[in-house]
Amino acid sequence: MILCLDFDGVLHPHLRHEPDFCRLPLLWQILRACPNVNVVFSTSWREVYRHDELVEFVTYGGGEDLAHRIVGATPSLENEGSYGRRDMEILSWCEANGYKGQWIALDDIPEVFNGNPNLYVVDGSTGLTEAAVAAIIQRLCP
């Protein structure tokens, strides 16, 4: 299973009254509970930072043992006319990598998924919560 990960509104609240990546321990909790899940970055941060920097952002401070489970980042489809369609970016990554398995996306903007049922919508004003973690774990490793 692939977990497609947004940062803003998921790993930290949008309003940023808390530091960036303040919800990382909750992501680590999900990944440790579901050892067969790998991560693909679907965040806009992938357009600004190198892959190794993104990996460090989400593993530093206690999640370093999970770094090997981050397997890529979705492409930008700006030139193909699908820019901002994260569902299409994820499907493009799956095709390019020969991945035919299941995926789930954690994101706070449902509009960029065009109703795709693989989206788990996170409340961007809070980011990940304990309740969301329990629901996500149940969905990822039933």
Give the end-to-end Cα distance, rounded to a whole number of Å: 12 Å
Radius of gyration: 14 Å
Measured as a percent range, the helix fraction is 25-40%
- Uncertain regions: pLDDT < 50 for 5+ in a row? none
The number of E-state strands comes to 5
Average residue pLDDT: 93
Number of helices: 4
Profile the largest sheet: 5 strands, parallel
How would you spell out the order of helices and strands? EHEHEHEEH
How many domain units? Answer: 1
- The rough form would be described as globular
Could you say which structural class the secondary elements and strand pairing correspond to? alpha/beta
User: Order of strands side by side in the largest beta sheet?
Assistant: 3-2-1-4-5
Strand-residue proportion: 5-15%
